[in-house]
Write a structure and sequence with these properties.
alpha/beta; 4 helices
Length: about 120
Amino acid sequence: MRFFYGFTNATSLRGLDAVSARLRPNEVVVTDRCWSFLATWLLHTRTLPALYPVDIQPKAELARANEAHAILDGTPAGQIDARRLGVRFALVDPTCPDPDGNALAPPRVGTPAFTSERLLVLKL
C-alpha cells in the first residue's frame, strides 16, 4: 500500500495544500489516473479524473473520463468543458503510467504552478 500511494510524499502534499488554499467552494479539479482517488479526498473537492476504461466501474463514468482527457489534451472540446466546469487546476503525476505501463504524454495545457517529482500542478 505504501508503494502504491508513494507519490503522496511530503513535497506533493505541500503542493496540494497550496492548491487547496486557492480552491473555491465545490470547484472541480482535473486529475490524471494516478491522482484521481486521493485528490478528491486530500483536496476536499470534486475531481474530474482522466481514467481509462479498465479503471472505471461503472462504465457510465466513461463520458466524464473522456472530458478529463480532452481537457488535459487541450482539445477544443476540452477547452469548452474546462470553461463550462470552471476548471482552473489540473493535477498530474509525471511518472503515472497508462494501463499498459507506458509513460503518459504530458498535458498540452496549463502553466506549471507547482512542480515536484510526483506532482505537477497546472494552472489552466
